[in-house]
C-alpha cells in the first residue's frame, strides 16, 4: 500500500499535469487565432495592393469597356478569305482602339498636283484610323481615280487599290481592303448633304460596307446621306475641277453613272499627319 505522502505527491503531479495541459491548449488556440488574423491581414493588404495597382494603371480608363479616355473601340470586320476577289488588297487590320479627338491633315499627292483635306477625329475616329492605317501601308500609292460623275452629282472617286497600270479594266471600282467598317458622321441634317469641298467614303449601299474607296465632291451634290463624311478639302480643288472639265468616257453611265476620267489622275502617295490637338 502507498503511504499518505505518496498519494499526496501523486495528486500534486496530476494537478500540475492538468494545469500544463490546459496552458498548452490555450497557447495553441492563441497561435491559431494569431495565424488566422495574420493571414487575413495579409489578404487585405494583397487585395488593397491589387486594387491600388489596377486603379493606378487604369485610372484614365473609361467606365465603358476599359477604353482609355479620348479613345473608342472600332470594329473592323475582316472579309472572309475564302472567295476573296483578286481586287482585294490585304494589308492587315487597323488597331481596334482609335483616338476620338484631335485633327489630321491628309495629303494626296497626284500627277497633277497635291490635294489636301482636314479630318476631325471626334467625328470619324474609326474611318480616320482606317485611312491612316491604309496610307501607312502604301495602300493607295500609284492608283488611279477610276470614276468621274459630271451629271446629277459631281464627284471624283478614288481608292481602288487594283486601279493601276495603263488603260482601264472592267473590274475597276471593285477593289478595296481586306475589311469593312461601319459608316460614321452621316450628314442627315445637312442640305445639301454633300456640298462642294466634302470628301466622303463610298460604299455598296449596304450598312457597314465602307472600305477604302472615297469621293471628292467638286459641286453641291444631292446624294442620300448614306456615306461617311471623312473631311473637308483644304487645297487642290483646282486639280479636281481640272479633271472634271475634261469629262468622262461614260463607262459607268448605264450603272452607277459617269465613267473613267478622260484626264488621268494618279495618286502617287497618300499620307496623314500625326493627330493634332
What does this structure look like?
A nine-stranded antiparallel sheet has the order 7-15-5-6-14-12-13-9-8. A two-stranded antiparallel sheet has the order 1-4. It is built from three helices and 15 strands. The N terminus is likely disordered. It is an alpha+beta fold and 277 residues long. Strand 8 and strand 9 form a beta hairpin.
Strand portion:
15-25%
Mean pLDDT comes to 84
Low-confidence stretches: 1-8, 33-64
**Quaternary:** single chain
Distance, first to last CA? 106 Å
Write the layout of secondary structure elements.
Blueprint: H1 4-57, E1 71-73, E2 77-78, E3 88-89, E4 97-99, E5 103-110, E6 115-120, H2 125-136, E7 143-144, E8 147-149, E9 154-158, E10 176-177, E11 179-180, E12 198-201, E13 214-219, E14 229-235, H3 237-245, E15 266-272
Q: Descriptors for this entry?
A:
277 residues; alpha+beta; 9-stranded antiparallel β-sheet; globular; disordered N terminus
Outline of the structure:
The protein has 277 residues and is of the alpha+beta class.
